[in-house]
Amino acid sequence: MTDIDEALDWQGQPVCCDSCAHRELLALGRCQLRRACVHDRYARRIDRFFYWNRELANQYLAHPYFEVRAIAAKFADVFHLPPLLQDADETVRFSALLRLPRKYLLKMRHDPDREVRIRVAYRLEGTDLLEMRADPDYYVRLVVARRLPFESLHLLLHDADREVRLMVAKRIGMEWLKTLAADSDADVRLEAARRLNGEALLALLRDPDWRVRYEVASRGEAERVLPLIDDEDELVREIARSRIKGEELGPVNTDFASALQGEGHEC
Question: Can you give the residue ranges of the LRV FeS4 cluster domain (predicted)?
Answer without folding.
Answer: 7-59
